[in-house]
């Protein structure tokens, strides 16, 4: 019974990741209060309850509407895999589009306590750019998203233009690149890498191989933030990475690759 209440399994055929749902909800609540404030969090929770009961009360406080109002960007919605405009040979590996929570992202990122201006940031499978917008709030050397779908990449480009028009970019160059994560080349410098369950183990293996190759001579740490880490065993078993922590009841895993190995 307790296991049922506390444990939730994220599932894809052949893969599963269990996380502590109670800890996740508790942490999510605390993070929402930290970044959104108490009043807007409570109104958002009430709006969710009303929406579940099919009552259109407090509609404008639904969390996703608060996010659109706050950022001015629409990164919401789900695009299922069969609707993604991607090459057929990648259809088996690609996961559907869905934006991450930028508050969860900011919480995990800030826990690294790093000097952002020493790091480049890359989101592999960046979709409409929700996390690019969140990362651009920090003074990274650059913020880059790599997205396989042309349509999502174009939306991300529009969102980036809006952010730039509004003067909301603190990072260096903010870019969405249309392409395959497996073949993206990194500059030889310190990085914070982000993946939100974007692809299967075949592409993740190629991504990790590229990172090893391109950053072989980099002495600074490389952080790997893995949200909904369906294929975490690849990082757990890699001699290059150490797991730093779990966050949100294990729904996030944070790894570090220390330079000089
Ligand atoms: C779950 S979404 C994550 C979106 C974004 N990172 C965020 O957190 O808001 C996963 C994205 O990965 C993209 N994707 C899947 N396979 C890819 C690949 N091989 N190369 C680049 N992008 C890929 C999908 O098109 C989708 O937009």
Automatic annotation (TrEMBL):
It comes from the Bacteria. Residues 122-212 form the Methyltransferase domain. GO terms for molecular function: methyltransferase activity. InterPro entries: Methyltransf_25 (IPR041698), SAM-dependent_MTases_sf (IPR029063). Signal peptide: none annotated. GO terms for biological process: methylation. CDD domains: AdoMet_MTases. Keywords: Methyltransferase, Transferase. This is Methyltransferase domain-containing protein.
């Amino acid at each position: 019974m307790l296991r049922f209440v506390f444990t939730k399994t994220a599932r894809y055929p052949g893969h599963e990741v269990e996380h502590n749902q109670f800890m996740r909800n508790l942490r999510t609540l605390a993070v929402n209060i930290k970044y959104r404030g108490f009043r807007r969090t409570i109104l958002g929770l009430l709006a969710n309850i009303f929406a579940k009961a099919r009552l259109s009360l407090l509609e404008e406080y639904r969390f996703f509407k608060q996010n659109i109002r706050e950022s001015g960007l629409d990164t919401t919605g789900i695009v299922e895999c069969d609707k993604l405009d991607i090459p057929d040979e990648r259809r088996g590996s690609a996961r559907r589009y869905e934006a991450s929570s930028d508050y969860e992202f900011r919480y995990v990122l800030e826990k690294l306590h790093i000097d952002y201006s020493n790091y480049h940031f890359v989101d592999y499978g960046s979709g409409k750019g929700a996390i690019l917008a969140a990362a651009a709030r920090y003074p990274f050397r650059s913020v880059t998203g790599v997205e396989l779908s042309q349509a999502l990449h174009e939306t991300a480009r529009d969102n980036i233009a809006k952010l730039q028009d509004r003067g909301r970019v603190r990072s260096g160059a903010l870019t969405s690149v249309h392409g395959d994560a497996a073949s993206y080349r990194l500059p030889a410098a310190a990085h914070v890498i982000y993946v939100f369950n974007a692809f299967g183990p075949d592409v993740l293996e190629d991504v990790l191989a590229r990172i090893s190759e391109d950053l072989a001579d980099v002495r600074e740490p490389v952080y790997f933030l893995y949200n909904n880490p369906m294929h975490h065993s690849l990082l757990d078993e890699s001699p290059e990475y150490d797991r730093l922590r779990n966050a949100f009841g294990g729904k996030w895993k944070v790894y570090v690759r220390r330079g000089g190995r």
